[in-house]
Each structure stands twice: as structure tokens, then as C-alpha cells.
Specification:
Number of strands: 11
Distance between the termini: 40 Å
Order of helices and strands: EEEEEEEEEEE
Helix content: under 10%
Strand content: over 45%
Structural class: mainly beta
Number of helices: 0
Length: about 120
């Protein structure tokens, strides 16, 4: 059974930074795209960033481009999201999404096979 566990969320002031991590167990990690999504109260889940299985291609939502950096370490089955210059509108539950093996990056949650429970990011003004 694939397990996805996020960590690194917290409370930070506007302009600050946070680094999220996501560990994926048992999946053939290096064959699967990985993504970060977020969901604020009363809003739909939205794609934040995605990275191809090789790490050679990365994608960012316009709202985070230039501030967030996604990366992965396939040897450690770990996905990262470095978030700089945080804004109050970045406040949300952040979710790590994985797979399936051989899949492609996507902005649609239904295209991902495995999800974590989420880690809360709160940015105060």
C-alpha cells in the first residue's frame, strides 16, 4: 500500500518562507510524476506545482511562479516544495500527490493516484 506523508507546514509571517517535504513509500517513485496541490476553505483544490518523474520538467501555477521551487530526490523517495516570499493568499492545506507510474504532470487532481493527508500553511499579514 502506497503511503504519502507531508511535513513542513506551519505559521509564518508574510514575506517569510517554508519548506515542505513529502515522502512516498512503496511506489516506484522514480517513474511517477509528483505534484503539490492546495485547498483553502471554501475553495476548490488547485494545482500549485508539478515535477516530471525525471525531475527534468517542472511546472508552476502563475500565482506562485518565481516564489516556489519544486524538486525531488528519487533516491530518498522525497518531494520538496520551497516556498519563498509567502503571501496571505498562500494560506491553505497543501497536499502532495503522486503517480501513477508512467504518468504525466497534470493540473487535475483526478490524474494523480496517491495523496497525502495534507499539511497546513498559514501566512499572516
Amino acid at each position: 500500500q502506497v503511503q504519502v506523508v507531508e511535513s513542513g507546514g506551519g505559521l509564518v509571517q508574510a514575506g517569510g518562507f517554508l519548506n515542505l517535504s513529502c515522502i512516498v513509500s512503496t511506489l516506484t517513485f522514480d517513474d511517477a510524476p509528483m505534484g503539490w496541490f492546495r485547498q483553502a476553505p471554501g475553495k476548490e483544490r488547485e494545482g500549485v506545482s508539478c515535477i516530471s518523474w525525471s525531475g527534468g520538467s517542472t511546472y508552476y501555477a502563475d500565482s506562485v511562479k518565481g516564489r516556489f521551487t519544486i524538486s525531488r530526490d528519487n533516491a530518498k523517495n522525497t518531494l520538496y516544495l520551497q516556498m519563498n516570499s509567502l503571501k496571505p493568499e498562500d494560506t491553505a492545506m497543501y497536499y502532495c500527490a503522486a503517480g501513477p507510474d508512467g504518468g504525466e504532470c497534470s493540473w487535475y487532481p483526478d490524474d494523480f493516484a496517491y495523496w497525502g493527508q495534507g499539511t497546513q500553511v498559514t501566512v499572516s499579514s
